Amino acid sequence: MGSFWVFKPREVILKRTVFQMPDAGRAKIQFNRTNVILGIVLLLSFAGVLHHLVVLRKIRVAYVHNERSKPKVNPIWSKKCVKPEGYVFLKKHKTASTTFKGIMVNISKNLTLDGEKRWLGPQGGCYPAPFDPTCWPYSEEGSHYEKIQAMSYHFRWNLDYMPKLLANNRENIRTITTIRDPLDTFRSVFNYFYGAKRKGPHDDCDITCFGEPFWSITQSYNSTIGEFLDQLDEKYTDDAPYAFRAKNIQAYEMGMELKKMDDSKYVRKSLIEMDKQFDLVILTEHFWESIVLLSHLMCVEYSTLYRHGFKIILCYIFITIISKNQVLNLQKELMRTKKTTKCHN
Ligand SMILES: *[C@@H]1O[C@H](CO)[C@@H](O)[C@H](O)[C@H]1NC(C)=O
Ligand SMILES: *[C@@H]1O[C@H](CO)[C@@H](O)[C@H](O)[C@H]1NC(C)=O
Ligand SMILES: *[C@@H]1O[C@H](CO)[C@@H](O)[C@H](O)[C@H]1NC(C)=O
């Protein structure tokens, strides 16, 4: 008898010790009201926990995204404005930039910043080639490379080089430009470089290449904008002199390459870079809002941004948008704020 138990297989013994219940642990849960209600309650709480986890995750994702999308440099729109040590205003053709340049110059005076010297006429930095150090005129007041003060001429942004140029003092330098409705800009570019300036055939480009690319594309110096647009699809080529004026002059001056402007991946990538590289992109159609933002960004009072006789602005922006009375009211309003507004620092 004794020897029989010694050789009993091990798992049988284990089974006996673990499941002491008569039906070897397979007790059925009874199907009654209490159990059904309990089951439903359990199911509901399980669903509740799951729901909370999903919601919590969503909140976390939104929070992380929000944290990430906060600008890393220049917490500009924080409540207190901080006076910058310099700025780069990219002056772009036909986008009300002359008006804003005037305003920027007054800001320079108020912040006692020296203006950078221009290279050629109203231009700097090798325009229409992208800005690079070889075209930066030396100024006797000091090295450009150490500290930018006030740069506000026409040049072409360089998406690769500008961040390097600004890197040593990025937090204290403000970068600004203006953009305008593309069709309005095109109309203005056409009239300025071609329509208003036609004098006769342009055999060679002068420094500003007036007439181009419109003359090369139409082979005429008296086409109307409609006639030009009718020929555009057929005759446009990126290789025409100053072709960017007939494609997207704003994207070009902000640093995009002409021949890659049809590549949506490149365009998207460039836009992301621009978004990082500019602190304020003024929409010329929102002049007054821009003045408010500019005042805060540069930490100057509205009175510094005021300009007597808004003639240029009227021509550029308001003539088609608002009536003369509204303009007068806005001017009155500005005069009032001039007397009462203080810088928010
Ligand atoms: C800048 O503007 C402020 C406010 O109008 C003024 O108090 C200050 O004197 C100005 N600074 C200069 C250098 O003009
Ligand atoms: C443009 O000029 C040409 C001569 O160069 C002339 O034959 C033509 O009629 C002109 N067109 C317009 C619209 O003025
Ligand atoms: C700059 O300031 C002067 C003096 O206040 C003013 O006469 C001029 O209109 C201002 N220019 C611009 C562009 O705001």
Automatic annotation (TrEMBL):
Give the highest taxon in the source lineage.
Answer: Eukaryota
Tell me a GO biological process for this protein: glycolipid biosynthetic process
- Keyword set for this entry? Glycoprotein, Golgi apparatus, Membrane, Signal-anchor, Transferase, Transmembrane, Transmembrane helix
What is the predominant subcellular site recorded for this chain? Answer: Golgi
Bilayer-spanning residue ranges: 36-56
One Pfam family matching this protein = Gal-3-0_sulfotr
UniProt GO molecular function = galactosylceramide sulfotransferase activity
Q: How does the record classify its membrane topology?
A: Single-pass type II membrane protein
* Keyword Glycoprotein belongs to the record: yes
Please state where this protein is localized.
Golgi apparatus membrane
Q: What InterPro entries has UniProt attached to this entry?
A: Gal-3-0_sulfotransfrase, P-loop_NTPase
Q: Name one GO cellular component term.
A: Golgi membrane
Q: Which family does it belong to?
A: Belongs to the galactose-3-O-sulfotransferase family.
Q: Which PANTHER family match?
A: GALACTOSE-3-O-SULFOTRANSFERASE, PUTATIVE-RELATED
What's the protein called, per UniProt? Sulfotransferase
Species the sequence originates in = Oikopleura dioica (Tunicate)
